[in-house]
Amino acid sequence: PIISWFWGGNFYTLAKDLLHPTPEEERRRHKKKRLVQSPNSYFMDVKCPGCYKITTVFSHAQTVVLCVGCSTVLCQPTGGKARLTEGMCTVYL
C-alpha cells in the first residue's frame, strides 16, 4: 500500500512503502540494513560423485575443499562465494 498524508495544506504521497519492501528489494539490500538482519552465507551438504560421501561446505569457503574419501576437489574459493566443481549434488541446510 502507498502511504499518503495531509500536512500544511498540502497532500503528500510516499513513492514506495518503506515498511513492506518486496522480497527482491530485501535481497539486494546490505545484510545489516534489512528489516530483519540475515546473513548472505549458508552451509550446504555436497555429495561427491566418485565415492558418494557427503561433506558439509560453507558457501563462502576461503580454501579448497576436498572430499574426505577420495580427495576430489569439491569447491574452490573465488573471492566471494566458493565455486562448486561441476557434477556435485548439493542440499542447502
TrEMBL record:
Keywords for the protein's UniProt record, in alphabetical order? Metal-binding, Ribonucleoprotein, Ribosomal protein, Zinc, Zinc-finger
Q: Which domain of life is it from?
A: Eukaryota
As recorded in Swiss-Prot or TrEMBL, the protein's gene is named: rps27.1
The protein's name is: 40S ribosomal protein S27
What is written in the cofactor note of this entry?
Binds 1 zinc ion per subunit.
- What molecular function does GO assign, one term? zinc ion binding
Q: Which family does it belong to?
A: Belongs to the eukaryotic ribosomal protein eS27 family.
By its UniProt entry, which SUPFAM superfamilies does this protein fall under?
Zn-binding ribosomal proteins (SSF57829)
Cofactor(s) needed for function: Zn(2+)
A cellular component term (GO) from this record? ribosome
Any coiled-coil ranges, and where? Answer: none
Q: What is the species of this protein? A: Electrophorus electricus (Electric eel)
Biological process terms in GO annotation: translation
Which InterPro entries would you find in this protein's record? Ribosomal_eS27 (IPR000592), Ribosomal_eS27_Zn-bd_dom_sf (IPR023407), Ribosomal_zn-bd (IPR011332)
